[in-house]
Amino acid sequence: MNQHYLMHTKEKPHSCEVCVKAFSQKSNLNSHYLTHTKEKPHSCDVCGKTFSLKKILNRLYLTHTKEKPHSCEVCGKAFSQKNNLNSHYLTHSKEKPHSCDVCGKTFSQPNNLNLHYLTHTKEKPHSCEVCGKAFSQRNSLNRHHLIHTKEKPHSCEMCGKAFSRKSSLNLHYLIHTKEKPHACEVCGKAFSRKNNLNVHYRRHRKEKPQSGEALVKRFQ
């Protein structure tokens, strides 16, 4: 029951002594330590590759089976991972229920709104002891420290490439899964990364307006 409460309070009392990443449950911390010790107790029955975490092995299995169990209820597009489906839903809903009290800008997720507030307050209470650079959030400072230490604690279980940030590793995994959760609303072309989609949208904005007949032919 105590572990369940931590899910609601967002507390993470168990921190890694190697990279300071924190977890709400001790079991998750123990699994995380395997990424540092390089132990890989979970092996794939298909190709023989070994992994430190069971969830990474499950992700690999989907590349063998080509299964995509998570499908969009709006357009039917399927994904192998639930988090990619959730990102895809934002392309349909366009809902942004969380608004900034200062400037009125709206966001689809509350954590993005909280990050936005810091642009108004300009507070940066967390400073780097090496170069003095200051940050508004502690986790941003922790990521910054990796620039000085050159550590790359997040490694790909499929090809071994290492990254200093977990977000960079997650983007890298899309190369292996071949998923493209970010789709263009104009022509339907899909991309694995949101910034590539944004670059693609600029090309549409530069296009000359077409007649109604031309648009019909284009999408036939």
From TrEMBL:
Keywords, sorted A to Z: DNA-binding, Metal-binding, Nucleus, Repeat, Transcription, Transcription regulation, Zinc, Zinc-finger
Keyword Metal-binding: yes
Single GO term (MF): RNA polymerase II transcription regulatory region sequence-specific DNA binding
Single Gene Ontology BP annotation: embryonic morphogenesis
A GO cellular component annotation in the UniProt record: nucleus
Boundaries of every C2H2-type domain copy: 14-41, 42-69, 70-97, 98-125, 126-153, 154-181, 182-209
Presence of keyword Ubl conjugation: no
Location(s), subcellular: Nucleus
Role this protein plays: May be involved in transcriptional regulation.
Entry's family note: Belongs to the krueppel C2H2-type zinc-finger protein family.
Name of the protein in its database record: Zinc finger protein 45
Encoding gene, per UniProt annotation: ZNF45_32
